[in-house]
Amino acid sequence: MPELLCRTEKVEHVRNFKTEVRGLMDVDHLIQRSIIHRNMDHSHIHTILLTLFSELSSQFPRERFDLALFKNAVFSVSDRDARAPRLHQKLQSYSGTDFFDVNQTWIVTHAQLDGLKQSHMALATLENATNLGLEMEEARIVVLILSPSYEKHTKSAAEIARTFGTLLMNDSLRQSMTDAADDDQIRDLLTDSAKSLSQQMTIQINGVPIPDDDDDYEKDGKKSTCCPYYPFRGIMKDFRRRWASYKSDYVDGIKDRRSVSKVISSAVFLIFTILPTTIAYGMLNENNTKGMINVQKVILGQWIGSLFFGIFGGQQLLIISTSAPLSIYISVIYQVCQTNNWDFFQMYATVGIYAMGFLILSAVFQLASLMKFTTRSTEEIFSVFIALALFIKAIVAIVHVYTHGYLGCINGGPEAICDPAEPLLFMFLLFGTTWLSMTIISFRSSPYLSRWKRDLVSDYALPIAVLVFAFISFFGFSDVRKHQFKIFPRETDAYFIPFYNLPAAAQLPALGLSLPLAILFFMDQLLVTNTVDNKDNKLKKGSAHHWDLFVVGILNIGLSMFGIPWMHGALPQSYLHMKALSNVEDRLHNGYIQTVIVHVRETRLATLIAHLVMIPIYFFLVPYITVFIPTSIFNGVFLFMAFSSLTGNEFWERILLIFTEQRAYPPTHYIRRVPQRVIHQFTMIEFIQLVVLVAIGFAQYHYVEMVFPIVIAAFIPFRHFILPLFIRKQYLEAIDGKH
């Protein structure tokens, strides 16, 4: 009875022995204990492979070599027809430019078997060119690779076969192997060839040759040409680049029905993402300044600043907001003023003007170009720090409510703060909001409904979760006390600050406070910009680092003069905004699902619409928000933002690799190029840097927290001058290259 035979072929890239560290490791680990059978006189592929398998099982008696499993894994029709067996997996050299596309003088076949504890290799050279079947009509060399079925991808039989297949593409090597006098000579030939390839091939990251530690770096004789330098050059270039696509920044948001839907859903998403963080930072500033800067001021600054930057800013996907480091800095200024009996708002405005003067000068003289030396690790550490800060905020809020609501009963506190239901409801609303939003956003990858309907539901995940638990809180637990923020008289929200009345004795301290603040703005703004501009996000309209610094400087001078909190590019809001406007796909690669950004709608409309909606919210709805949406739901949004921002962060993924079984490692490019030990070593160094950031960012003394921006800046020279002393440069460029 005839049967159907399914054949699948694909092109495998040759192994680069310098960029992919597994090449030399495969040769070193396997070649010395491999089975070599020279001048075999068999003329049948079935017999050759069974002979090699038998010799392997004899050489390694402690391994469990199952013959039935081997036949099923290697032969596509088992051995029912031994006269014309077909191989499941066959690796050969292919060239589309030759008349005979496939080189039939050698083959590598491979399989993964249950029961094996380590990988094995067997090689046979044939006495004469032998016809072994289809596209094996002149075979002289046959290689068999076997590996455990549980092995990780980079150590799999297919990857090892790619290593030896690359070696056998060398015509002179194959000739020398067939003429070899003994087995050791074949082993030496393969080892020497692998070492030679590792020296000939040059590592390239993003198409740029990278030297090894021992290599002298030359630029291939090409002189770098640069345009004449002059002040404002970077600002003018950025302006011309962004002006060319300024019209499309609006049109791209309405050019089709899907774009309109994405813009609307992104605007709603931004409202429910930015408003909770704005309220939270307002509450933090309120506690730090005794209400002088409060929730209403932060909301006012949010929509004013975002509309200004949304219209005049360069990178249209950036979301600007106040931040935890800025709140810390405001607290330091407040304490300085309290100690010296100076007017807080006069000092605040003066420090802001001085700092923004430094920031504008950095834009004029193109200091943002220094950020080309930043690598992914600095941005990823900063992103994880922000996510960790959001997580800590939520945990601190839980502890605070638990302490005042439940422990008060145990410790015999006043009846007014003895309410065990309050902390229970707080945790229910917090974790419920996080769980529901994460569940709905994962609906995109479910099999239910059609694709566009799943995307639509996922786009509104956070608003749905917030509204659902707000209704549950308001109607289901109306008698339980909930934590709310204070409302202040609106006439104190914004007024002109006579900063010129600040005493002369306070001018020098103001100047001293302004320099670290300028560094904080410089680093945070550019790190957020680099995160959004990452090449993996597939943005097409270009960046505007210098112009954005200039715009942020002008904006914050105005905010300083009216006592409104400062603003700069914010994480994770900017990253989440970019993701909300993008089309993403879940792609399966080597058994690992990767979420890939396919297209981003680079439009200003979402952020402008969201902050236009915040104007009536500020004027009319703030008193109702504090009643209808308790702070526990805002903290649930913090957790959602923290978890969402970790997606795609390679530092976080490398942390998880430490606890991941090797066979489940994702097919990330650096796993092929860098030894596992070096990957974990680099991750631990990043983790130590994160610990330093956390220790400074959450220090009990505010003067210590002022060092935060300087520490972030110090990570850049540490990466380029200190880290290469411990990890080879080629490994660093593979793990942590520039964008």
TrEMBL record:
Q: Which UniProt keywords apply?
A: Cell membrane, Ion transport, Membrane, Transmembrane, Transmembrane helix, Transport
Return the GO cellular component terms, semicolon-separated: plasma membrane
- Where it mainly occurs, coarsely classed, is membrane
Span-the-membrane segments of this chain are: 263-283, 295-312, 348-369, 381-403, 423-444, 456-477, 508-528, 549-568, 617-643, 682-701, 707-727
| BP GO terms, sorted | monoatomic anion transport
Among the Pfam families in the record, one is HCO3_cotransp
- InterPro entries according to UniProt: HCO3_transpt-like_TM_dom, HCO3_transpt_euk, PTrfase/Anion_transptr
Domain (Bicarbonate transporter-like transmembrane) ranges: 231-405, 418-738
Q: Which GO terms describe its molecular function?
A: solute:inorganic anion antiporter activity
Q: What's the protein's topology in the membrane?
A: Multi-pass membrane protein
Q: Where is the signal peptide?
A: none
State where the protein is found. Cell membrane
Concerning its family, UniProt says: Belongs to the anion exchanger (TC 2.A.31) family.
Name of the protein this chain belongs to = Bicarbonate transporter-like transmembrane domain-containing protein
